[in-house]
UniProtKB/TrEMBL annotation:
Pfam families xref list: C1-set
Name by which UniProt lists this protein: Class I histocompatibility antigen, F10 alpha chain-like
Annotated keywords: Glycoprotein, Immunoglobulin domain, Membrane, Transmembrane, Transmembrane helix
One term under GO cellular component: external side of plasma membrane
Domain Ig-like intervals: 136-227
Highest taxon listed in the record's lineage: Eukaryota
Listed transmembrane segments: 236-261
PANTHER family per the UniProt record, alphabetical: CLASS I HISTOCOMPATIBILITY ANTIGEN, F10 ALPHA CHAIN-LIKE-RELATED (PTHR16675:SF191), MHC CLASS I-RELATED (PTHR16675)
GO biological process, one term: immune response
Keyword check for Transmembrane helix: yes
SUPFAM superfamilies given in the database record: Immunoglobulin, MHC antigen-recognition domain
Keyword Manganese attached: no
InterPro entries: Ig-like_dom (IPR007110), Ig-like_dom_sf (IPR036179), Ig-like_fold (IPR013783), Ig/MHC_CS (IPR003006), Ig_C1-set (IPR003597), MHC_class-I_related (IPR050208), MHC_I-like_Ag-recog_sf (IPR037055), MHC_I/II-like_Ag-recog (IPR011162)
Organism of origin: Chanos chanos
């Protein structure tokens, strides 16, 4: 692990280090295999029962590329501690380890140099990926719970990197105690970013208050505040407009039909009058013919 990114793992069956990160290359393959063999070594021989041997080794670089502290922890069959405690536990398993006199030398001359070398190598290789800053997308949601009159107020922040974030839910400007909230677990997204949500269940009376989601993150210059006031429910304006439109249509259809009918009746009457007038003229012309 480099910070929160898994770079690889050691396969104890094949006794080799396996890359997991897509940006890895094989330039330092031989060196990495040798270092992994030294660090992980060969676990103690198991007894007739199932035993588990675990080892955690870590180191840090401070500002100015100065090596910081080294962390080393061994655990064997449920007993945890440093190598001195491991020596005591292994003696119970009839294995003899004389690490007390050389523990400082092992850490200083083997574990720390290897760890610092690997750390510097991967920091250089994955620098752009590890030092990126992605701003969180924050939403404040209100949802009526199924089969309940209560409402769930949720503050959701997602898509951010690095993983460290401070998420606070306020009610009328005052922080809500953490023991009243659910969630707060940091979860990974598939794109390498993270998400976190905190929720609060409130009554119908409490939901009328003003809730605010406050987020602080390394990618933000200032804290981000997302507020939402009480929502009394769906707006009735669309319903009113729909009813008015329906009434307008119901009223206008008969009126339009009447107008069209009158126009058609008038047109027929005019046509008939013209026909009668034309026929009368023709009759008159016929009656004036000389005999």
């Amino acid at each position: 692990m480099l910070d929160d990114v898994q770079l690889g793992y050691y396969d104890s069956a094949d006794r080799k280090y396996v890359h997991r990160h897509p940006h890895a290359n094989s330039e330092d393959y031989d060196s990495e295999q040798k270092d992994a063999g030294v660090v992980f070594g060969t676990p103690p021989s198991p007894s007739e029962e199932i035993d588990v041997f675990q080892r955690i080794i870590g180191c840090e670089l401070l500002d100015g590329d100065v090596p910081g502290q080294v962390k080393l922890l061994d655990s064997y069959s449920g007993f945890a501690g440093n190598l001195q405690e491991l020596n005591f536990n292994l003696q119970k398993k009839t294995l003899v380890w004389s690490m007390d006199s050389i523990i400082d030398w092992v850490v200083e001359n083997i574990y720390q140099p290897i760890c610092i070398k690997i750390l510097r190598r991967y920091l250089q290789r994955e620098k752009r990926y590890l030092l990126r800053k992605v701003k969180p997308r924050v939403r404040l949601l209100k949802k009526t719970l199924t089969h309940s009159t209560r409402t769930q107020v949720t503050c959701l922040a997602t898509g951010f990197y690095p993983r460290h974030i401070n998420l606070t839910l306020l009610r009328d400007g005052q922080p809500i105690p953490e023991d009243q909230l659910t969630g707060g677990i940091l979860l990974p997204n598939t794109d390498g970013t993270y998400q976190m949500r905190k929720s609060l269940e409130v009554s119908a009376r409490e939901v009328k208050r003003n809730y605010t989601c406050v987020v602080t993150h390394l990618s933000l210059d200032n804290k981000l505040d997302i507020s939402v006031d009480y929502d009394p429910g769906p707006s009735i304006l669309p319903i009113v407009l729909f009813v008015l439109l329906a009434l307008f249509v119901l009223v206008m259809i008969p009126i339009a039909s009447c107008i069209i009918w009158k126009k058609c009746a008038g047109h027929r009457e005019l046509t008939q009058n013209r026909y009668i007038a034309t026929a009368s003229t023709e009759d008159n012309e016929c009656s004036t013919d000389p005999k």
